[in-house]
Amino acid sequence: MDATVWILVWSLAALLLVLVARARAMVQPPVAPVPVRRSLPPGLYASTTAPTPTAGAPGAPSGSAPAAGPPIDPVSRRKLLRWVGWTGILLVLGQLAVSFLPFFWPRKVGAFGGRVLAGNVSDYDVGDVKKITEGKFFISRVPEGFLALWQRCPHLGCSVPWDANGPSLDSIKPQGRFNCPCHGSQYDRYGQIIAGPAPRPMDLFPISIENGRIYVQTGPQVAKQRAVADHQKDPTPA
Ligand code: FES
Question: Does residue 217 register a pLDDT over 70?
Fold first, then answer.
C-alpha cells in the first residue's frame, strides 16, 4: 500500500472514532433544570405543606435521589456537521498534497525508474550481453547497434537470466541466449522470442548515446513492447 492509501485509511479511522464519540455525547438524555427555590424570611408567607427536605439532609426520606448536577450541554447538529465538513475538506487537501509531493522530489538517477548509465560504447564488442543490475536490463551489442532489454519476461513477469554458455539462437555468436526459468521461454540477442509461451519479444528501454556513454531510461512507463524484433529499427546505432 502506498503512502496515500495509508493516510486515507488512518484519517478515516480517526474520523470514525471522533464521530462515534460525538454521537454518544448526543444521545445522552438531557437533564431537567433544577428549579430555583427562593428562600423567604419566615412569617412572610403561609404554606399548607411542609418544605421538602433536600436529599441527604437530616429528615430526608431514605432512598431519595441525590440532587442533580449542572445540565450537560449537548453538541448541536450544526456544530457536528460543520466539524465533519471541515474534516472532509482537510482530507481532500491532504490527499492532493500527497499526490503533488513527488513533483518536488528529486527524480531517481542511476536506479530502476530513472536514467541509468550503462557504460561506454567501447566497453562492448559485437555479441556481448551485459546485465545492468541497478536498471534491471541487459545491454545487448548487436551488429546494428545497442539494445536495452528489460529483464522482465513478457509471459508472466519472471526475471530472465542470460545464459552465456547455452547454444545461441542467433547468427551473431555460437553461444549465448536468454532462458526464462519459469516456463522455458527462450530469446535471442535481439530479445526475439524463439521458443516457449511468451506472447512477444522482450521489451525495450530507450537508449541514448552521449559522448561515447550509454544512457538508458528505465521503468515500466517507458518500456516499449514489440510484436516482433526488428533488427534494423530496434537497435540504437553506436
Ligand atoms: S514467465 Fe517467462 S516463460 Fe513464463
Answer: yes
